[in-house]
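Q: I'm building a small set of examples for a reading group on sequence design. Run inverse folding on the following structure and report the sequence directly after it, with nothing in between.
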């Protein structure tokens, strides 16, 4: 099938490569010339394991080509995926749909009447209906618009795209269902559930899923707050409740909380949209989910102050700065915000991260960057583990202890073998665990 993928950020670039891997003829459309040039040269402009190797393969197979805007070639496609971003609006919690609206309107000038348009971007419920009206008016015929949310996670994006838990489509026409079934046929052949829904439900599935995931994380982090003042251990608690199959043990890792380009802005956007619809109170609890999450960052700043007293001139080493491992994404990263706040309080924060130091240089140049782990920790008065890269689990606390000034570490992700670190003379402050008293 001939398809276009409009917008080549994390979602679009991954989806374009995935579609090429399924054997389709894919045209990636991206107006940002820097991003486009990089992708066309087979170089992924961000870190994503597996996708970096799959991209040049897709290009050399001839299945994936790129262009900066629509033309006769892309106009002949049978299916167009809209993958542009919906960031948080500046100065508001609402999702900014400007790019989706612009992409849909531009596409409407080019598409053929039988083409299907599948929106994959995360949008406020009701967006697709507005887009359909606008596109139909511009195209001069009823556009086959569908909503087909994407559930990929950074770090495992390609794998998630090719082996999803489910494929969700919201449609207004049987033709859209047929075309989407056809494009995903190789995935469906493996038994992947295909859910045919109405459009508002399909739009809601995505934000509801992210809201649920965020709630799970904040639930366990709320328990961590209670554990911290009652002598309990939130990690052991998560394990104990997780054995109940109705609760499950996933997404109950306590620590400095969730960040990234999706969960934080999606829960805020959801609240804003529900308020517009007059049902704000239904999802009011998501404000608490957000607040619990942000309080974990405050907690680390408070811990640093109580360990170091005045932060002026104190050397702090941050291990990991991306919002999660296997990603160089710094959007709303808890480790980044903590580093920036400690710097603002006078600390000299040196960051180590396996892949994120280059984007960090642009994003937050006031932070010191060090590629060598031992050099990054040399002279540190305090070490904070901010991202659970496997590199940090493998640190030898004895060797590591030789370079720092003070053997104190805040385990912001609860991944360290605490007794082993304590045996090497470290004071370990693990969020939600009280182990520093032990
Ligand atoms: C999230 C969803 O998991 C995807 O299903 C969704 O498709 C994606 O957003 C999106 O909307 O595009 P992602 O942002 O890549 O994916 O990252 P997650 O794996 O969800 O992790 C989010 C944050 O939660 C990270 O900062 C992670 O460290 C944190 N987290 C995760 C915890 O603090 N505890 C946990 O138990 C799990």
């Amino acid at each position: 099938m001939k398809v276009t993928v409009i917008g080549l950020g994390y979602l679009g670039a991954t989806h374009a490569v995935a579609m090429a891997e399924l054997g389709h003829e894919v045209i990636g459309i991206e107006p940002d010339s820097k991003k486009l040039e990089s992708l066309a040269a087979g170089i992924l402009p961000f870190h994503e394991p597996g996708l970096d190797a799959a991209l040049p393969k897709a290009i050399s197979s001839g299945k994936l080509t790129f262009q900066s805007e629509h033309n006769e070639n892309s106009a002949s496609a049978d299916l167009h995926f809209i993958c542009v971003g919906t960031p948080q609006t500046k100065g508001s919690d609402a999702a900014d749909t400007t790019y989706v609206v612009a992409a849909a309107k531009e596409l409407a000038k080019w598409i053929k009447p039988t083409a299907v348009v599948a929106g994959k971007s995360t949008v406020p419920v009701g967006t697709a209906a507005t887009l359909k009206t606008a596109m139909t008016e511009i195209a001069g015929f009823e556009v086959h618009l569908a909503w087909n949310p994407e559930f990929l996670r950074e770090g495992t994006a390609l794998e998630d795209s090719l082996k999803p838990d489910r494929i969700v489509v919201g449609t207004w026409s049987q033709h859209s269902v047929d075309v989407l079934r056809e494009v995903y046929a190789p995935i469906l052949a493996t038994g992947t559930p295909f859910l045919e829904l109405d459009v508002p439900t399909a739009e809601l599935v995505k934000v509801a899923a992210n809201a649920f995931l965020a709630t799970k994380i904040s639930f366990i982090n709320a328990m961590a707050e209670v554990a911290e003042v009652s002598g309990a251990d939130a990690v052991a608690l998560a394990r104990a409740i997780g054995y109940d199959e109705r609760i499950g043990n996933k997404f109950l890792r306590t620590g400095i909380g969730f960040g990234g380009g999706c969960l934080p802005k999606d829960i805020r956007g959801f609240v804003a949209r529900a308020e517009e619809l007059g049902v704000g109170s239904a999802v009011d609890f998501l404000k608490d989910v957000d607040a619990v999450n942000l309080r974990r960052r405050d907690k680390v700043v408070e811990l640093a102050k109580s360990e170091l007293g005045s932060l002026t001139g104190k050397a702090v080493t941050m291990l990991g700065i991306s919002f999660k491992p296997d990603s160089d994404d710094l959007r709303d990263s808890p480790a980044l915000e903590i580093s920036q706040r400690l710097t603002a309080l006078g600390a000299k924060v040196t960051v180590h991260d396996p892949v994120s130091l280059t984007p960090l240089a642009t994003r937050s140049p006031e932070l010191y960057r060090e590629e060598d782990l031992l050099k990054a920790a040399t002279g540190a008065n305090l070490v904070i583990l901010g991202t659970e890269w496997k590199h940090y689990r493998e640190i030898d606390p004895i060797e590591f202890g030789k370079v720092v000034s003070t053997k104190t570490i805040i385990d912001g992700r609860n991944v360290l073998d605490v007794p082993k670190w304590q045996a090497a003379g470290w004071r370990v402050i693990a969020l939600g665990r009280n182990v520093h008293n032990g």
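The first strand starts at residue 2 and ends at 6.
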